[in-house]
Design goal:
By secondary structure, this protein is α+β, with helices and mostly antiparallel strands. It is about 30% helix and about 25% strand. The strands form three sheets. Strands 9, 10, 11, 12, 13, 14, 15, 16 and 17 form a nine-stranded antiparallel sheet that branches. Its EC number is 6.3.4.18. Homodimer. This is N5-carboxyaminoimidazole ribonucleotide synthase.
């Protein structure tokens, strides 16, 4: 989009005031928390999701249908003043249809870009933001050549889909090339090979941008993953202030370059030399931004509603140190039990736990069932609290 088109878009951007209905493509926990935040602001919500009584459908009316169902999408459009999406694996064709028949400030172009790792990486590079060196993989021979160029270890990923560590394989030796290729190339999938980045920390920044061009970012979150799934988000991040400032600057630059309307979650690696590489982006609220619900003047969910509705963006100031810990299926029973019977022995840490459960009907190992935000005076106190509960030693 040219500069002239962006200026025209900003001038003509419509503002949706409280009382308007927001349609949400996707009925998971992100949609649920968005609806809860937006309802408090006076907005109404309706969601489209194929799962009966989806998390968002428990707090807003739900159209139960496939994401590729064009008739259901039109029904959502008729019931909504504006439409957003809560995860990027929504059918881009349906999003394009809605864009032509309704008001979708995020548009379908950004969705199309972020649904495919190669398109996403090229868009990030076009913004002048560094990504880890990568190669497109078309066959086993191209994989062998790319591995030689990038060096081992390296990471082979499917270009579309994949989340929480699924759809990727770390290749540590030449002997592992063929097995990784056979595993991930099934069904004609497109593949991407990335150089393995030796990092001192994984971080993320949630940036927000409104159609009129206002841009803000939230404080940097330091993220710790276990088995490919986010385990902890630590804020303030335990990295240099200069690196944090640069990370927020890069995230805001990407939000502007990609013409974002709403939120953009930007995940990055911090190398031992303090360099930053963007790993991936997501045009929506993000697990690593859940800490904002209690620790910031404005939550990421309120900010998303403000941004897509073209309201002034909220203050992103951090009000308290915090650690967010995910509650997976294997943790749920003990978390619920402990919530009902507080452990006074944990009071010594001076931590205030805030539990958020998502209302999912079935608890499975590795499935995100909720999270706890631990407000504290020092993040180490919250980390000690997590360790002393023994809950997360279950894996």
């Amino acid at each position: 989009m040219s500069k002239e088109q962006q200026i025209s878009q900003q001038v003509n951007a419509k503002t949706l005031l409280p009382g308007s209905t927001i349609g949400v493509l996707g009925g998971g926990q992100l949609g649920r928390m968005m609806a809860l935040a937006g309802t408090a602001m006076g907005y109404r919500f309706i969601t489209l999701d194929p799962t009966p009584s989806a998390p968002c459908g428990q707090v807003a009316p739900q159209i139960e249908a496939s994401y590729s169902d064009e008739a259901a999408a039109r029904k959502l459009a008729l019931a909504s003043d504006i439409i957003t999406y809560e995860f990027e694996n929504v059918d881009a064709g349906v999003a394009a249809l809605l864009e032509s028949e309704s008001h979708v400030p995020q548009g379908s172009t950004l969705l199309y870009t972020t649904q495919h790792r190669l398109r996403e990486k090229r868009a990030i590079e076009a913004a002048g933001v560094p990504v880890a060196p990568y190669r497109e993989i078309t066959d086993l021979q191209s994989l062998s050549q790319a591995a030689e160029e990038l060096g081992l270890p390296c990471v082979l990923k499917i270009a579309t889909g994949g989340y929480d560590g699924k759809g990727q394989a770390v290749i540590r030796s030449e002997g592992g090339l063929e097995a990784a290729y056979r595993e991930l190339a099934a069904a004609g999938r497109e593949l991407v090979l990335e150089k393995f980045i030796s990092f001192q920390a994984e971080i993320s920044v949630i940036a927000s941008r409104s159609p009129k061009g206002e841009v803000k970012s939230f404080p940097v979150s330091e993220n710790i993953h276990v088995d490919g799934i986010l385990h902890l988000s630590i804020v303030p991040a335990r990295i240099a202030e200069s690196i944090q400032r640069e990370a927020r600057k890069l995230a805001e630059r990407l939000a502007e370059s990609l013409n974002v309307a709403g939120l953009l979650a930007v995940e990055m690696f911090v190398t031992k030399d303090g360099e930053l590489y963007v790993n991936e982006v997501a045009p929506r609220p993000h697990n690593s931004g859940h800490y904002t619900m209690e620790a910031c003047a404005t939550s990421q969910f309120e900010q998303h509603v403000r941004a897509i509705c073209n309201l002034p963006l909220g203050d992103t100031t951090l009000l308290s140190p915090i650690v967010m810990v995910n509650v997976l299926g294997q943790h749920l029973e003990e978390v619920v039990k402990r919530t009902g019977v507080p452990d006074n022995a944990l009071d010594e840490f001076g931590v205030v736990p805030k539990l958020h459960l998502y209302g999912k009907n079935e608890s499975k190992i590795g499935r995100k069932m909720g999270h706890i935000n631990l407000l504290c005076k020092d993040v180490q106190h919250a980390l000690d609290w997590i360790e002393q509960t023994h809950i997360w030693r279950q894996g």
